[in-house]
Amino acid sequence: MNVVMIGSGYVGLVSGACFAEFGACVTCVDVDQTKIERLKAGEIPIYEPGLDDLVARNVRNDRLGFTTDLGTAVAAADLVFIAVGTPTRRGDGYADLQYVYAAAREIAGSLNGYTVIVDKSTVPVGTARQVERIVRETRPEADFDVASNPEFLREGAAINDFMRPDRVVLGVESERAERLLRELYRPINLIEAPILVTNLESAELVKYASNAFLATKISFINEIANLCEQVGADVHAVSRGMGMDKRIGSKFLHPGPGYGGSCFPKDTTALIRIAQEHGTSCRIVESVVEVNAAQKARMVKKIRSALGGSEAGKTIAILGLTFKPETDDMRDSPSIAIIPNLVDKGASVRAHDPQGEEEARPLLPESVSYYHDVYDTVTGADAVVLMTEWNEYRGLNLDRVLELMKGEVFVDLRNVYEPGAMEGKGFAYAGVGR
Ligand code: NAD
Q1: What's the pLDDT at 90?
Q2: Going by fewer Cβ within 10 Å, which terminus of the chain is more open, N or C?
Q3: Strand ranges of the sheet holding 383-386, from the earlier edge strand across to the other edge
């Protein structure tokens, strides 16, 4: 089966490599020539654990290739996936569909024989039908179906999520298209992962509703964490107690500096706009977005008050810049909201991230200095802020950290360490919600 993946970013590259591993013959296409050249040279342009081996193995076995020539790839394809970006549109918060529609027009021009065009990008309800319209207008005689197959992988665990998904959602309205998609996903049947077949609109909405619900859990526990700080409760005990209830579940009940990343911020905003456009509202999600912005602002205040009321003239060492560990993705990372505030108030910031420095540099103030060693980063700092819970920060030599620092403030925005133990060592420790 010939599969084409349009867009070779976090989703396209992982999905393409995994479909190749499933046995399909996959061509990953991108408009970014440098990205394709790097991939052809055996270089992986993003950081995702295990992706280098998976790509190399499938390239070696002739099941995976890369090109900028969309036309030739599409002409030979049975299934063409659209996995381009759908960022927030400037000004109105709606999902920007220009890349999806551009891809649809290009695909239409090259269709050759029956082809299923599959939206894998996260797209507002109605997009698949719009893609269908675009292709039909461009090529009235073409033999094709459009399907929706939203992707649920998490960066940092993307390959396992793709290979062992909780579910695969297929929005598909023709038997021929469903047969081809089921055949492509056959290996996941062997592990008994469920496949949910729906109409196009439901499939599109499953994705937004799922992300908005997860974001809701995060904002919910962040509000509870703030309450814990006022009443002397420990949010970890509260979230554990909640999570033991199977109706609630323990996942996504970890307090922190607010959610970020390439999906939750844009998908929550887009869902609110989709609802408004259809004359209804998503008031819970509106609150979730507000609470999240407030949480980031609250973290700035937390750091300020840990420093005695002012960041001016203080040196702050930031550990972790990416929105979560095991990725180099900086899109909407809380660090982008927090660090400029500290710099504006006169702090000098030293930063460390195991993978994100290159992506972070253009997004953070120029005055931020970067270090490749955690202990160099904390040297001379008045405060250490643990921003992202990379494994590397879980087992710090805390005695050495304290010795190298000028001050003793440790602000743990991910609650990696135990308050009592930290205070016992001599840190002035502040966590979230405890
Ligand atoms: P990305 O920015 O990493 O990759 C998108 C790629 O598409 C880029 O390399 C870009 O150059 C390419 N592109 C744009 N227009 C093109 C065209 N006409 N032809 C060929 N290539 C083109 O984005 P991503 O993180 O992979 O996200 C892609 C989609 O998947 C988004 O809708 C996103 O919401 C969704 N999604 C992302 C994740 C995630 O964790 N990143 C998870 C689930 C779903």
Answers
A1: 87
A2: N
A3: 369-370, 348-352, 315-319, 383-386, 409-412, 428-430
CB 253 within 8 A of CB 213: no
Cα–chain-centroid distance for residue 173?
A: 29
Probe residue for ligand 1, chosen from 14, 30, 161 as the CB with the greatest number of ligand atoms within 8 Å? 30
End-to-end, the C-alpha distance of the chain in Å comes to 54
What is the best residue among 10, 48, 127, 328 to mutate for testing ligand 1's pocket, by most ligand atoms within 8 Å of CB?
Answer: 10
Three-class HEC string of the chain: CEEEEECCCHHHHHHHHHHHHHCCEEEEECCCHHHHHHHHCCCCCCCCCCHHHHHHHHHHCCCEEEECCHHHHHHCCCEEEECCCCCECCCCCCECCHHHHHHHHHHHHHCCCCEEEEECCCCCCCHHHHHHHHHHHHCCCCCEEEEECCCCCCCCCHHHHHHCCCCEEEECCCHHHHHHHHHHCHHHHHCCCCEEEECHHHHHHHHHHHHHHHHHHHHHHHHHHHHHHHHCCCHHHHHHHHHCCCCCCCCCCCCCCCCCCCCHHHHHHHHHHHHHHCCCCCHHHHHHHHHHHHHHHHHHHHHHHHCCCCCCCCEEEEECCCCCCCCCCCCCCHHHHHHHHHHHCCCEEEEECCCCHHHHHHHCCCCCEECCCHHHHHCCCCEEEECCCCHHHCCCCHHHHHHHCCCCEEEECCCCCCHHHHHHHCCEEECCCC
Q: What are the residues whose beta carbons fall under 8 Å from the beta carbon of 297, sequence distance 6 or more?
A: 337
4 CA to centre of own chain: 23
Torsion of CA 403, 404, 405, 410, to 10 degrees: -70
Q: If you average pLDDT over every residue of the chain, what do you get?
A: 97
Mean pLDDT, residues 339-364: 98
Name the residue among 61, 352, 47, 95 with its Cα closest to residue 204.
95
- Across the range 343-355, mean pLDDT stands at 98
Give the model's confidence band at 379: pLDDT under 50 very low, under 70 low, under 90 confident, else very high. Answer: very high
Is residue 6 in contact with ligand 1, taking CB distance under 6 Å?
yes
263 a catalytic residue: yes
Task: With 0.85 as the threshold, say if the pTM is over it.
Answer: yes
